[in-house]
Amino acid sequence: MTAIILVFLLAGVIKGVIALGLPTISMGLLSLVMPPGAAASLLIIPSLVTNAWQLLIGPDFFGLIRRLWTLLAGIILGTLFSPLPTLSAGSGLTQIALGVVLIMYGVWGLLAKSTPNPGRHERWLSPTLGYITGCISAATGIFVIPAVPYLQALRLPKDDLIQALGLAFTASTVGLALQLGQDNQLAQIDYSQCLIALLAALAGMSVGQHLRRYISETTFRRLFFIGLIALGAYMALH
After folding, report:
1. Whole-angstrom Cα Rg for the chain
2. Which long-range contacts (CB under 8 A, 24 or more apart) does 115-120 make?
3. Do 132 and 78 meet the contact criterion of CB atoms below 8 Å apart?
């Protein structure tokens, strides 16, 4: 229980500062101490509540829904109909795949420059990259690749980007919950643990939002991505 509290506190702080990272950090760290399917089941409620909070406080909910609905639909479909082994399959490759995705995301975060705006290609890129994000989510429990780089490439205003990330992460969480439900993983959820995880995540988010005023977001993001690479390398090699 102590490990769960500490993991979700840390993940909540990171999400409070940079508006993402809760499922990424939670899956990465919890998978070191429990099966990935159990870790994914535990993060469903904290992820859903914190991302719903993030998307509802933004300025243009319905406008973003109209623009991004094909991305969101692609995420759901990719999670439910992925050709990759799912978290529930208990594949020995799951933790390796999770580590590789963490490394990829960390390297991208450190090295990526401005991503080209998709422009007229947005119409087909949104559902395609949404589907790929869903497939990776079903296999690893991580929602960020390639959805986050794609949303950043759309050049949305800061508040709209934060809300768009909330939308994408909420769709990913719903899709993952449906996929885990298909495999009867949700029947094993300990709701008392989920409540404690949620409270820890909300407390961490509150702290992170306060810290955002006093620390350099650029420095914090750099440390975050370096930490992801180290964690991913450990998981892949271990």
Report:
1. 16
2. 115/149, 115/150, 115/152, 115/153, 116/153, 117/153, 117/154, 117/155, 118/150, 118/153, 118/154
3. yes
Compute the distance between CA of residue 34 and CA of residue 192 in angstroms, rounded to an integer.
Answer: 17
Q: What is the pTM of this model?
A: 0.83
pLDDT digits (tens, 9 = 90+) for 52-70: 877 777 678 888 999 999 9
Determine which helix (DSSP H) or strand (DSSP E) holds 141, and give its type and residue range: none
Helix, strand or coil for residue 91? Answer: coil
As a whole number, mean pLDDT of residues 124-131 equals 94
Residue with tokens 């991505």: 225
* Helix count and strand count (H, E) for the chain: 10, 0
Token pair recorded at residue 162 = 């934060």
Q: Which amino acid is at 24?
A: T
The stretch 7-24 carries a mean pLDDT of: 82
Question: Distance between the two ends of the chain, CA-based, in angstroms?
Answer: 23
